[in-house]
């Protein structure tokens, strides 16, 4: 089964946890993963990797360095991901348990957290808990990136996410729109988590 077919199949099975009918394209993946440093040995945490669109971009940037932990709640996605990217540490877990997942691996802080989670599909309490988990483990000089679809930008859940990001980070940069993505999307690049 192709990556697109697998993604669509999982969307039909669980639309509120998958959140899209197709995986993100390479231009969006490159934009969202741009904060992953090209030197040093960073700990990069990926939330909701799905079939691995962002995973592949992270791996290209790391080029064998650091530690890449992918946290995926969907067991079928996790199995496919582990097979496709054997060098990635794949954890089958809810992203809200991020502190525990990191601690089980001997880590306490992430340098970069890249999210492929479907924020617009989440209730306010889920968004709050997920962002709390992110800021709880992100290093003070770390970067959190996520994306949103342009057509959802004015939806109540999307506006709530934007407000929550501004409350949890000192700096939130909204990227340009990636029109080549299906559907078009943009990224949030967030720095300096608030204590």
Quick structural summary:
The protein is built from 8 helices and 7 strands; from the N terminus they run αααβαβαβαβαβαββ. The protein is α/β, with parallel strands linked by helices and 195 residues long. Strand 1 (43-47), helix 4 and strand 2 form a beta-alpha-beta unit.
Label this structure with key terms.
about 200 residues, 7-stranded mixed beta sheet, 8 helices, globular
Question: How is the largest sheet built, in terms of strand order?
Answer: 3-2-1-4-5-7-6
- Average pLDDT across residues? 90
The oligomeric state is single chain
Radius of gyration: 15 Å
- Overall structural class, as computed from helix and strand content, comes to alpha/beta
The tally of beta strands, per DSSP, is 7
Q: What general form does the structure show?
A: globular
Word description of this protein:
It is a single chain. This protein is α/β, with parallel strands linked by helices and 195 residues long. Helix content is 39%, strand content 25%. The protein contains eight helices and seven strands; from the N terminus they run H-H-H-E-H-E-H-E-H-E-H-E-H-E-E. The chain has helices at residues 3-13, 15-18, 26-32, 53-62, 75-84, 98-104, 124-137, 156-168; strands spanning 43-47, 67-72, 89-92, 110-115, 138-149, 169-174, 185-193. The chain has a seven-stranded mixed β-sheet with strand order 3-2-1-4-5-7-6, sandwiched between helices. Strand 2, helix 5 (75-84) and strand 3 form a beta-alpha-beta unit. Helix 7 runs parallel beside helix 8 (156-168). The longest helix is centred in the C-terminal third of the chain and has 14 residues, at 124-137.
